[in-house]
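Need a sequence for this fold. Nothing fancy.
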């Protein structure tokens, strides 16, 4: 595993890239998509999932702060 997880911007870019591979040229969502995910991308996704799990514990507080 990578020692340092991706920045929040890099995580957003990773998700955008994955979404971009699931969209047709006309912008419609693909019915099905096969993705090739290499070990580095998998590592990044694991880090992202772990970070979201940790943040989920504080979701209510984050939402309250963001809505003020």
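Here you go.
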């Amino acid at each position: 595993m990578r020692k340092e997880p991706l920045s929040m911007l890099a995580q957003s870019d990773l998700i955008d890239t994955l979404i971009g591979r699931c969209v047709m040229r006309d912008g419609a969502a693909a019915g099905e998509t096969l993705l090739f995910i290499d070990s580095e991308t998998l590592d990044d996704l694991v880090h992202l999932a772990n970070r979201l799990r940790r943040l989920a514990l504080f979701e209510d507080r984050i939402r309250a702060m963001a809505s003020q």
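For context: Residues 10 and 16 are 10 Å apart (CA to CA).
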